[in-house]
Amino acid sequence: MSRYDADGQRAYGHSIESMSGIVLVLEQSIEVDVSPAFAWNFRTDIANWSDPPATFLLDGPFAEGAQGRTMVPGQPALVWSIRDVQPGRSFAIEMALDRATIRFEWLFGAAAGETTKLRQRIILFGNNAAAYKDQVEAGFGSTLRDGMKRIAEQMVAAGQPPRAN
Q: Which CATH homologous superfamily contains domain 16-48+88-159?
């Protein structure tokens, strides 16, 4: 599996090129006006995951190997696993498909001041990945930028101190 640091450099001994049968890579990054520690804690708390109408459940703590589910009304639950956790730096969510895998990599890095460079990389790979390419591209290609912006806004709002009346 690939692991990259927040600047997109190869890290942890593997590269994206070593993944078998990659058919799609989507990537988006954004700077967020919160500290990297705050961004990490916010994103690894699935209570903060908001993508209606989907809801999310995690079986146990946010840790390597933990399994979770995404529920969308009227559809079977999507089961995923947490992989490659580097606390404070990166993690991945992997979902097995029929002879393919979709991987969502989240990378957290320090930017200027107390801000965070947040990057998400979506990788579709495997022997049958081409069968899912159009669906994944349609589902994430045009919405990734806005989704990252929404997550950044949620982080900033959650990181603001309460206002006095």
A: START domain (3.30.530.20)
Q: How confident is the model at residue 112 (pLDDT cuts 50, 70, 90)?
A: confident
Distances (CA, A) of 136 to 25, 89, 90, 124: 10, 25, 22, 8
Residues 20-55: pLDDT tens digits? 789 999 999 999 999 999 999 999 999 999 988 999
Please state the φ and ψ torsions of residue 107, each to the nearest 5 degrees. Answer: -125, 135
Q: What is each CA distance from 125 to 67, 71, 73, 87, in whole angstroms?
A: 20, 23, 27, 25
**Largest Cα–Cα distance of the chain, in whole Å?**
58
Cβ pair 131, 24 in contact under 8 A? no
Mean of the per-residue pLDDT values of the chain: 88
Residue pair 14/1 in contact (Cβ under 8 Å)? The answer is yes
Domain ranges of the chain: 16-48+88-159
Given the structure tokens 């705050």, which residue do they identify?
38
- The gap from C-alpha 84 to its chain's centroid, in whole angstroms, comes to 12
Phi, psi of 151, deg, nearest 5: -65, -45
Place of tokens 């933990």: 66
End-to-end CA gap in the chain: 50
